[in-house]
């Protein structure tokens, strides 16, 4: 265990130093300096409802979208599907499947982000040319995680992402790494995840970076009985194309059936309070199922998004 703890500490230190040494090429705000922005959309109603403070709580199949190490805590096959009516009438869907292979847990996932087709306009034809423009983003990923002890899991993920903008398109291979550590003190868990690591790309003669994101989180149960549980989580996020911010979330569970959730993101003028709930459905034989909903507000300009997730497990 001491060796595993040392490995985690060294990995975190090296990762933080790597991020600190990134040269952004300018001194002002980093907003708009990275591509594949759809990767920053939170996937999963439970995670979104808790303000996306979920790195240390990721212990299900949806972990492939937050902290890939989390699938290592699964005891059997599981699948999930998430849908969101995103901003400006766009659609965001994601699905994931995880299953054990010997001592490892394998995860397969996919994401689709689509906007409505719109008519092309030019300087000479401001009312439209009659040519319809389409755009979208897509991703497929393969993950592997292992539970080294009853306290520690480590996971890796490789992802292939593609963005289509009318006649332009580009793709890239990205990588994630993450770990979760159950400290043994109360129900305290610590975790970190490095997401969307990949090479720079060029589109229409413009070079841009990937939306590299570093997460460090912690969570604990404030109280836990046979019928009730209150969990609080918090994490620090360091993106390459925005200011650092902190996510805070809570989840109250009653009778292991109903869960009420809320969250907040600091230093982020685009996000407001998040809320949601979850229901664990009655088991049918060996199959268990859960349904979750999240309400995420983006203020008066963009309104709110509604996110739904359905998960099944064996």
Task: Output the keywords.
314 residues, mainly beta, Porin, 14-stranded antiparallel beta barrel, two-stranded antiparallel ribbon, globular, disordered N terminus
Question: How would you describe this structure to a colleague?
Answer:
The chain has 314 residues and is mainly beta. The protein has one domain: Porin (Beta Barrel), CATH 2.40.160.60. It is 9% helix and 53% strand. The chain has three helices and 18 strands. It has helices at residues 2-20, 45-49, 299-302; strands spanning 78-85, 91-101, 104-114, 118-119, 132-133, 135-147, 152-165, 168-182, 189-197, 201-203, 206-208, 213-224, 228-239, 245-254, 258-265, 274-284, 287-297, 304-313. The strands form three sheets. Strands 1-2-3-6-7-8-9-12-13-14-15-16-17-18 form a 14-stranded antiparallel beta barrel. A two-stranded antiparallel ribbon has the order 4-5. A two-stranded antiparallel ribbon has the order 10-11. Strand 12 (213-224) and strand 13 form a beta hairpin. The relative contact order is 0.19.
């Amino acid at each position: 265990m001491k060796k595993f703890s040392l490995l985690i500490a060294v990995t975190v230190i090296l990762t933080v130093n790597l991020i600190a040494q990134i040269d952004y090429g300018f001194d002002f705000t980093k907003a708009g300096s990275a591509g594949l922005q759809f990767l920053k959309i939170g996937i999963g109603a439970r995670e979104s409802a808790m303000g996306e403070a979920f790195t240390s709580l990721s212990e299900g199949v949806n972990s492939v979208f937050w902290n890939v190490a989390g699938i290592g805590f699964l005891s059997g096959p599981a699948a999930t599907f998430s849908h969101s009516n995103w901003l400006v009438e766009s659609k965001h869907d994601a699905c994931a499947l995880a299953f054990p292979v010997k001592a490892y847990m394998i995860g397969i996932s996919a994401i689709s982000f689509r906007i409505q087709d719109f008519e092309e306009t030019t300087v000479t034809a401001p009312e439209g040319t009659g040519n319809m423009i389409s755009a979208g983003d897509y991703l497929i990923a393969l993950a592997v995680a292992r539970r080294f002890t009853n306290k520690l899991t480590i996971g890796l993920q490789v992802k292939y992402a593609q963005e289509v903008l009318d006649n332009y398109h580009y793709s890239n291979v990205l990588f994630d790494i993450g770990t979760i550590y159950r400290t043994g003190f109360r129900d305290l868990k610590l975790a970190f995840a490095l997401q969307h690591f990949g090479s720079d790309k060029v589109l229409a003669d413009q070079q841009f970076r990937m939306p590299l994101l570093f997460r460090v989180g912690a969570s604990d149960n404030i109280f836990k009985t046979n019928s009730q549980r209150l969990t609080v989580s918090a994490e620090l996020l360091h993106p390459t194309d925005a200011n650092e911010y902190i996510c805070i979330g809570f989840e109250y569970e009653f009778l292991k059936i109903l869960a009420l959730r809320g969250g907040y993101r600091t230093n982020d003028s685009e996000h407001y309070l998040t809320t949601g709930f979850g229901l664990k459905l009655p088991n049918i034989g060996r199959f268990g199922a859960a349904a979750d909903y999240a309400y995420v507000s983006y203020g008066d300009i963009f309104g709110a998004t509604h996110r739904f997730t359905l998960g099944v497990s064996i």
